[in-house]
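User: Please predict the structure of the protein below. I'd like the answer in structure-token form so I can feed it into my own downstream comparison script.

Assistant: Understood. Taking the following sequence of 193 residues as input:
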Amino acid sequence: MVGSQTLGVRIPEHVLAGVDRFARKQDLTRSMAIAVLVEQALSDKGMAPGESPPPATADASGRQDTASGKRAQQWGIKTARKIAAVLEAEKAADQPTANEFILDGKRVAIKCAKPATSQCGLTNTMRDRVDYIICASQSADGTFNLYKVTPGQWEQHANEPPRRNRNHGSLTHLSRSVYRRIGEKLGEVEIDD
């Protein structure tokens, strides 16, 4: 399978301007930004490599549906556990299915974001249980940059989903640009895929 291919496609200037804005925001090259955006669009439609077409009930707007949401959740759990292992954090025994760990005697939540994901989500109950949140932001090269955010910072700067969203009132999102600005940089880690 070819990993790189020149397509010779003419992309309109207004689309390239959007790609360039995305690339700057995510610290990517233009080529990588295009690849990430195409992969994200394919995944959102249930057409990522190795996947079957979306079910008939997939959201026609292109937003995350139940299947893509479940895949994202599973990736987040698996990735958080790998990062916790690198940090030598222990799983919080009273929350076996949550991304909660004990690190240096503190309860922490590890929330992960792929390069194309511009935010991390956190339930209000988890926010209220932990001493701090580690936002693990994946770079294009696969490494994760870690940012420590307190529950108070999260609550002050996070956004709620729209009222029509089923998670309104129980979950908030913190954008990558915000947690990079307000969070304490903890360094970066590499994990095995």
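That's the full token string. Residues 13-44 form one domain.
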